[in-house]
Amino acid sequence: MMECVGSQYRNRALVGLCVAYAIGYSLLALFAWAIPDWRHLQLSISTWIILFILYYFVISESPRWLHGSGRGKECEQLLRRIARINGKTYPENVTIEIDNSIHLITLSNGKTREPNVVDTVRTPNLRKKSFILNYEWFVVAYVYYGLTLNAVSLGKNPYMAFVYSTAVEVPAALITGFLLKICGRRLSTVSSMFVGGVCCLVTALPFLQHIDWLITFLATFGKFCITITFNVVYLYSAELYPTVIRNVGLGSNSVFARIGAILAPYVSSLSTTSPMLCQVLFGVPAIVAGVLALLLPETTDKILPETIPEGEDFGRGQKFWQLLPRDDF
Question: Pseudo-torsion of CA 84, 64, 315, 252, nearest 10°?
Fold first, then answer.
């Protein structure tokens, strides 16, 4: 979806998606309360997925992807359709010229091939960004789901505790749009991940363990910050990868996120025997991820890279200490 909207609308599109996700996530507690058996619950929330088949007939292909894949004729037809739906006139003096060779990888024997997931780490700059993004996704999913599981133990009623934990995601989604507009992608990722990790570490301090309201506040605010990070990295990663490897790049990020999500319940289970250790194991990786995000370039209002050479050159001039968005690298 990020490829189908202009740069000035990406923040709004992201906020809309995140609010819808937060509302659906909160409704999970209602389903769990109404359907106690986990097998029936799983079936009831999974059957809705069949409606996604209808998306094939409703959602158009990405014009940017079609262009990046060398399918110029289809790209032009789609752009004409978009212009017609939006009540605009497609400029007839504009033609889409595509050099298919720039979207392919040239081998040493002169042959060409389609880009694949290995190309996300083949060149130095893309390799650095890919490794950092993989770690960011691993940590944000690991901490996000870990704090969500821990939230159930914060109150006497696990259903209400879950609702309270997920309720913070709606304001987090709204604030995400504000942060992206003011601070950009890079500083939003750094600050939210770092503060979320600090909140986890502070809850592990021994002299605070008897102050229940403070522990609850810090845990909730930590979840709030990590939710912002989760919202931002979806958009940030999509903008950092060039079009030709955007799908495989986000796919590799998602794999690492799923590893983090798998690990989260095991670490979260430590809260029954060693709650302070549990919070440390969540906090330290989050702080490290926040610092590593400083090595990524800013993408706010930038033209997205299309090819692998463009992706390799993107952000080379970004300074480590440059926190706010600027018009040039």
Answer: 130
Which residues make Cβ contacts (< 8 Å) with residue 105, sequence separation at least 6? 112, 113, 114, 115, 119, 308
Position of tokens 């986890």? 200
Buried b (16+ CB within 10 A) or exposed e, 222-242: bbbbbbbbbbbbbbbbbbbbb
110: left (phi over 0), alpha (psi -120 to 50) or beta: left
Range 263-282 average pLDDT: 88
Report how far apart, in Å, the C-alpha atoms of 9 and of each of 6, 14, 26, 82, 250 are: 5, 9, 26, 16, 21
- Calpha distance 139→230 (Å, rounded): 10
Dist. CA 290–CA 293, nearest whole Å: 5
Please answer whether residues 208 and 214 qualify as being in contact, where contact means their C-beta atoms are separated by less than 8 angstroms: yes
pLDDT in tens, 180-202: 888 889 999 999 999 999 999 99
Q: How far apart are CA 314 and CA 309, in angstroms?
A: 9
Instruction: Report residue 7 as tokens.
Output: 């740069």
According to DSSP, the residues that pair with 105 across neighbouring strands are: 113
Residue pair 140/260 in contact (Cβ under 8 Å)? The answer is yes
